[in-house]
Structures are given as structure tokens and as C-alpha cells.
């Protein structure tokens, strides 16, 4: 993802779709044999997707609380990746 985070729900959905397409393309091109660089890129895509879904959840929570969803911001990967499930 570039340095600008999605500003609308539509932009967020588009970013998630682009991420999924990139992962699918990478997996399709690898024909089952994922190289180290492909593995690293897949991990980057997973982290990016986690951050996007976190932003989507933040936006919905703000909306549910009658707050401005536009005030939600993408959190650092270290924060999102260390959530306890």
C-alpha cells in the first residue's frame, strides 16, 4: 500500500480487493512453489491486509458510536500483528 491511507469506505474496499488480487496473482504465478522472495511478499500482503481490515473495523466502531469514521487511522503493523485473539 502507498503512503496514503483510504479515506472512504469505497477506497478501503478497493484497497482490500487490490491486496487480494495481488496475493492471488503471486500464488498463481508460483505454481505451488513459493520462493523466498515470494514468501516475503506474501507476508507483506498479509500484514497489509490485516492493517486494512483493522482500519475497516475501526471505521465501523466509530460509526456505531456516532463518531466520524474518517478519524480512524491505519495502525502500525507491529500494533495490528500483536493483537491477542
Automatic annotation (TrEMBL):
<protein>
    <submittedName>
        <fullName>DUF2630 family protein</fullName>
    </submittedName>
</protein>
<dbReference type="InterPro" id="IPR020311">
    <property type="entry name" value="Uncharacterised_Rv0898c"/>
</dbReference>
<dbReference type="Pfam" id="PF10944">
    <property type="entry name" value="DUF2630"/>
</dbReference>
<feature type="region of interest" description="Disordered">
    <location>
        <begin position="24"/>
        <end position="85"/>
    </location>
</feature>
<feature type="compositionally biased region" description="Basic and acidic residues">
    <location>
        <begin position="24"/>
        <end position="76"/>
    </location>
</feature>
Amino acid at each position: 500500500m502507498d503512503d496514503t491511507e483510504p479515506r472512504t469506505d469505497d477506497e478501503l474496499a478497493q484497497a482490500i480487493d487490490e491486496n487480494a488480487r495481488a496475493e492471488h496473482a503471486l500464488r498463481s504465478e508460483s505454481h505451488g512453489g513459493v520462493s523466498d522472495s515470494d514468501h516475503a511478499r506474501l507476508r507483506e500482503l498479509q500484514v497489509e491486509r490485516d492493517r486494512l481490515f483493522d482500519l475497516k473495523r475501526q471505521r465501523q466502531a466509530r460509526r456505531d458510536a456516532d463518531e466520524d469514521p474518517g478519524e480512524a487511522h491505519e495502525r502500525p503493523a507491529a500494533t495490528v500483528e500483536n493483537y491477542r485473539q
